[in-house]
Amino acid sequence: MRKTIGLILSIFLLVGISGCSNKDNRETLTIGLECAYPPFNWAQETENEFTMPISNNEGMYADGYDVAFAKKISEELDYNVVIKQLVWDSLVTELKSKQIDLIIAGMSPTEERRKEIDFTEAYYRTTHVVLLRKNSTYINATKRTDFAGAVGIGQTGTLYDSLIDQLPGVKHDTPIDSMGAITLNIKSGKADLTVIEKPVAESIIRSNSDLTYITLDEPFDVAEEEVIVSIGVRKEDDDLREQINSILAKISTEERDQMMLDAVLRSEGVSTSADNFIGKMIYLIKTYSSQLISGILYTLLLAFVGTVLGLAFAFIIALLRILVVNKKDHVIIKVLKYLGLAFAKVYVTVIRGTPMIVQAMIIYYGLAFGGVDINPLFAGLVTVTLNTTAYLAEVLRGGIQSVDHGQTEASRSLGFNQTQTFFYVVLPQAIKNTFPSIGNEFIINIKDTSVLNIIQVTELFFYANLAGKTTYLFFESMLLAGAIYLILTLVTSKILVVIEKKMNIQPQELTSSN
Hints:
Layout: H1 2-17, E1 28-33, E2 36-37, E3 41-44, E4 52-53, E5 61-63, H2 65-76, E6 80-85, H3 91-96, E7 102-107, H4 111-114, E8 118-125, E9 128-133, E10 151-152, H5 159-163, E11 171-172, H6 179-188, E12 193-197, H7 198-207, E13 211-214, E14 228-233, H8 238-248, H9 253-266, H10 277-321, H11 331-352, H12 356-369, H13 376-402, H14 405-413, H15 418-448, H16 460-471, H17 474-513
Parallel strand pairs: 1-6, 1-7, 10-11
Antiparallel strand pairs: 2-3, 3-5, 4-5, 7-14, 8-14, 9-12, 9-13
Helix pairs in contact: 1-13, 10-11, 10-13, 10-15, 10-16, 10-17, 11-13, 12-13, 13-15, 14-15, 15-17, 16-17
């Protein structure tokens, strides 16, 4: 058992320190983007002359308008340019923590963002449109005042969310972090509209025939910085910013317009023409089957290894939690016992009192700000293990304390010392009594690994979310993910029931043989 755990730890330690390995002798320039915002950027399985491989999503390639500029930078500068797929809300944090070097993700250089990072000159000028259902009562709107009574919803942390406030009488609903989820809200009638860039709207309606967009005669009141998108750089990287500005200066407006048109046309390849539910589901399964399988394997790996390691560490924490300070103990022993009790209590309180998603962010980005670059998968394993340890420590403590004290006295009367009594009498019964809770923790871990997508762990939810964002079939992709999670938990539950029955039969067989 110890050899197995040691092997697992060795594998993950190697994974954890291998994130920055690079065979190319050139300096690496890492570019961060969503890879889920067509036509600016998206992910696909096929490689072609327009794509670049995604460094943290093996077997996937990034394409789009942003990627076209990334390729130009790669061609002009003597860097080994790599693409890193990130969720939108983490882009600035990743840049500041030096996990990436540039943000090329259709980001506007707003005043708020300029407080955190710098930007290059614009590489695209956008037009804002209103996305809504074809059968919407607001379909004939031409002015901003024509939407009174509508419900508007925007993308978290973007200019487009703030533009909804320029539609008088519109109820501004809570923003959502992805356009896929926003699209679902509009399609389902939860919201009436959103404000978005015209190229993005064109990509959305290619996958959703019941949606359309309108360009208002009365433009939105926006500053210059709000109708352009620029490349984000760190404040101290002045030389890099100027190098990129010199590249942008060579690209004419006509060439940029053609690049965007080409990206829009290519983005049709990530859309489906199927209008019925079954057709859309088949399309998702067929297109993203390999990624979903990979996500399932990572989900099971994280859940299993995290539970096994968590159980091992929980045993230590549980022992600390049940320490008894005796009056006869030496003063040093007393101090050590008090410290052990305090550490165990604080550990369990802190870990159980904070969400796993927050712990993952602190571990991954906290270490990054401290100069320690670890692989997201390794950070995810640490997060699951720490969480599992805290919960199973209390489970084991309860199991140990539930063993009848009379059995301890009986074993001591038979000549067992305190250590032998604990390991041969108390602990086996405690493990047996708490096994259902341990199995339940494993099932919980299968589902809870979904929060690790916030630090770019490519588990099941990561790929399902990617499919929804890329194709704008958000409801269908979440339904598919839910079905897979249900199958995983049902199969796991059946296996655990079989193991529980085996454990119950074993003691009876031993008794009858005597």
